[in-house]
Design goal:
By secondary structure, the protein is of the alpha+beta class. Helix 1 crosses helix 2 and helix 3 runs parallel beside helix 5.
Length: 147
């Protein structure tokens, strides 16, 4: 809109105020494209079965491959949103699996978990803690956990 355009013009050395820029945009019939607000889906809304919280907020591990946490974050780029799924071992606090995609899907979460399982040679009895979003409650992700 006009405020952002005014800032850009000032950075290029032009001296216009916001009202002048807004009036010019109106005369030309130009309007700013409003970006859509990102709204993540809460786990209560996806309708899939939700697993019990086994960690109970105890994010300390006494050894490797006991407790892993998995989450997805979104990154804004010049070409839109990218989603990054990571798996972290709570003992070392290091990323052991990750995946990136332009869409937040169950496959994104599965790819990150598969990388972690491959890198850690499929350890047994690992507690995998997630935010219980739809990607983590999907049948694909749940079947991957059971292997």
């Amino acid at each position: 809109g006009a405020p952002r355009l005014t800032d850009e013009l000032r950075a290029q050395g032009y001296q216009f105020n916001v009202k002048t820029v807004a009036a010019s945009l109106r005369r030309q019939g130009l309007r700013a494209k409003a970006s859509r607000r990102f709204r993540p889906v809460s786990y209560r809304k996806h309708g899939l079965p939700v697993s019990e919280n086994l960690l109970k907020q105890d994010f300390y591990a006494s050894g490797p491959n006991q407790k892993w946490v998995d989450d997805i974050t979104y990154l804004r780029t010049g070409e839109g949103w990218l989603y990054l799924a990571v798996v972290i071992d709570l003992w070392s606090r290091s990323v052991i699996g990750w995946s990136m995609s332009s869409r937040m899907t169950a496959q994104l979460a599965c790819d990150a978990l598969q990388m972690a399982l491959w890198r850690r040679k499929c350890p047994e009895n690992v507690i995998v803690h997630t935010d219980r979003g739809g990607q983590y409650c999907s049948t694909d992700y749940q079947s991957l956990l059971k292997r």
